[in-house]
Design goal:
The protein is α/β, with parallel strands linked by helices. The protein has helices at 11-21, 35-38, 45-52, 71-83, 94-106, 121-130, 180-190, 246-256, 263-299, 309-312, 332-341, 364-381, 404-409, 447-459, and strands at 87-91, 112-116, 133-137, 140-141, 148-150, 163-169, 193-197, 219-223, 235-239, 305-307, 320-324, 348-349, 353-357, 412-416, 430-432, 461-463, 472-476. The structure holds pyridoxal-5'-phosphate. One of its GO terms (molecular function) is carboxy-lyase activity.
Length: 478
Amino acid sequence: MGPNPRVTAAPLVDAWQRARARRMRPLQVPGHKNRFAEGGVVLGSDLLGDLIRDDLPLQGGADDNGYTGGYLAQAEALWAASVGGDHARFLVGGSSQGNITSLVAAGGPERRVAVDRTSHRSALAGLVISGSDPVWVFPEIHPEFGLPLGVRPESLARLAGDVVAVFVTSPTYVGTISDVRGLAEQCDADDRTLIVDQAWGAHLGFMPGRGAIDQGADIVTTSVHKALMGYSQTAVVTVRGDRIDATRLDRAVDLTATTSPSATLMASIDATRAVMDRNGEDALASAIESTSRMRAALRRVPGLVVIDEGELGQACDPLKLTLWLPRTGVNGVELAHLLWEQGNGVEVADVDSIVMTISLLDEPAFCEETTAMLVGLVERLRGEPRAPAPAALWQVVPEVVMTPRAAYFAPRRRIKLADAVGEVSAEQFCPYPPGVPLLAPGERITAEVVRDIAEAGRIGRVAYCSDPTLETVEVVDA
Ligand SMILES: Cc1ncc(COP(=O)(O)O)c(C=O)c1O
């Protein structure tokens, strides 16, 4: 198959390469002055050399101080065109920055925004920073697997008339995909902005009709470093339509962005887009084929459930490999530990399930070896089938006492978590990964959540709380 007829130019990559080829002796920052790229004996090259060699700023590097080349803007316009959007901004603060930006753009002090309670913690940051007043909505949860299936369009019909925007995550961490088209139609009918956190689905944007922008969302954030090949931290926020115009998005991005962007990081977004325009169709077809072969082989393992479209009867990320384990008796946390020890880290694991990401760079042979290894490990750890113990975080239904912003800025005092039942939390407790808060600022602390936090701490890291031992909590000092 020939190259994709879409544009394959990469203006920011070209500018990056031209700058590298020039002899640059800058009389301006960065302080490393590009010397590590030149090799030879340089102060600190044993420690810094490999790390800083490819660093190049946009300002006074790939472009001049006035950005007169306009390479970043050109690259952003090409991204927007490739995924069907009207305007896109490259981010170096990950999808976290994109989610904050989206909520600032669409929400605002005391404006009500419907937010999926199983959102990544960056949505909470967006609520604190924007001052939006969240109305939590909840995804449907699979009755047996205990995994989120996405927020259904029907659940938006019950929202009050003053809700100005809806924020959902699709794909979810476990790979389930929402009916974004249905959500967009409902939001259009109600004159609301639909924001989609598509952090895990950058590849979907390059599959016609599958990305959230193509399906009618107004603002979509996607991590280029997750499903695609960008540098860690890279993401893009894209808008389509006139509900959120380019100026409004720019204002929100500029509120949260560095003024010293890395041309290297951003050029990796441009390069990824150009590669997808050129080879994406074939590469995606091959990775999807490998993943479905893995799924078919793993489904043959007695008791092993592969979470995909066939199993759930709804859209799922074609590159996520999510296994549900209770009928094999295998503990997902133990399985993930063994995998990590041999160099095969997984996205997330709990007792019942394990989630892995297959990418365009995973070759068929690697996928086959991985399948055989997974089958071997499941047999090694196999036990008696057991009742599921679904992770609590997908199913939290909190009592909200005040907004996350009000709780965040309220006077606080520290008490023992075990004694905090009935108090209002001033902070969040987030098992990471997946980064969905068990307890958010402004929520009433219950005996169940105290128990769930302790349990999450036993099997993994609970992050973004002030006391990593989980012994104490900051509560709102009423
Ligand atoms: C659903 C979701 N949204 C947003 C993010 C944040 O992405 P990033 O790490 O690129 O900031 C994550 C991170 O894992 C996530 O799972």
